Amino acid sequence: MSTRIAYLGPEGTFTEQAVRQWDADQRHTTWPAPTVPAAIAALRDGTADIAVVPFENSVEGSVPATLAALTDDPSVRIVEEVLVEVQFSLLTRPGVRLEDVRVVATHPHAAAQTRDWLAAELPAATLVPESSTARAAQAVAQGSYDAAVAAPRAAGAYGLEAVAERIADRAGAMTRFVVLRDGAPVPPPTGADRTTLVALIWQNRPGALLELLEQFAVRGIDLTRLESRPTGEGLGEYCFWIDADAHLDEPRMAEALLGLRRTCRDVRFLGSYPRADGRVPAVPLHADEQAYEEAGAWLAGLARPTRG
Questions:
Q1: Spelled out in words, what is the top-level CATH class assigned to the domain 1-85+173-184?
Q2: Which of 2, 12, 42, 114 has the greatest number of C-beta atoms within 10 Å?
Q3: Residue 194's CB: how many other CB atoms inside 10 A?
Q4: What would the pLDDT profile of 175-205 be if each residue is shown by its tens digit?
């Protein structure tokens, strides 16, 4: 029985590209969800076994819709991640030339990553936001807009042509997508892992962030992402989204989580999973597993003093 995968659609999105990259043999069935919350909701109601959604872009940062949806669904866990290089094309209907373009549609993240090119090549064009780059391409095919900034694969999906290619302002931009399951167990450690969590402090006070960071610093855990986001509970109320280079099964990570749980109002664990780039973190000698074993043996020995 094939796995059912929900992803942020429609057909032709970078998220679909991430799905194809993750499921290279295309053994599983897919469903293009209209929104990130809809893809995650499909997990909870059993319509899908897996959801793939965008999480972070190297230029524009985190994807707010994904952060909000994961906060609302604490049972959903990240089990893998996929990295996709982002390349944009300007897509039009056949016969439409670059100089004919007056209205361009795309997703806001794509607009931000092609801002300089659009300003230089289409300074008089009106830019219209759409829910995804593929939805923009779909609307161009339907005659709603003159052109779309979208993934190259969207051209084939909607019968469009690329009048300009590789139009991103920065070469090598990457987007990180996460593979989600509902109520899934934590994958075993690989040695190159990441843990994602959300920490809510008790109150906004001097030293609160420092106290949170110390839980990781003293245990030799590198944070690859730290972002404050509003909790929705009132102005000035924030939580911290954290990506840490360690796995739940590592003693240093487990101890850090215990420290956070004692010092924070709430800690939401979103998963420990393999890094897509396979990068193995450098662990200080005082924080590796042997150091923890020796410290544990020393502590146990304190209760059994020996006579000299």
A1: alpha beta
A2: 12
A3: 23
A4: 999 999 998 899 999 999 999 999 998 777 7
The DSSP secondary-structure symbol of 249 reads T
User: Is the full-model pTM beyond 0.70?
Assistant: yes
- The DSSP element (H or E) to which 82 belongs, if any, is strand 76-85
Residues 6+ positions from 167 with CB-CB distance below 8 Å: 88, 89, 90, 114, 117, 118, 121, 149
The angle formed by the CA atoms of residues 230, 233 and 238, to the nearest 5 degrees, is 30
How is residue 270 written in tokens? 């979103």
* Residue 53 · residue 178 · CB < 8 Å: yes
Q: What are 230-258's pLDDT values in tens digits?
A: 877 777 778 899 999 999 999 999 999 99
- 297 vs 22: CA distance, rounded Å: 43
Bridge partners (DSSP) of residue 82 are 177
Residue 281 DSSP one-character state: P
SS3 261: helix
Looking at domain 186-303, what is its CATH homologous superfamily? Answer: ACT domain (3.30.70.260)
> What's the CA gap between 16 and 5, in Å, rounded?
10
Cis amide bond preceding 10, omega within 30? yes
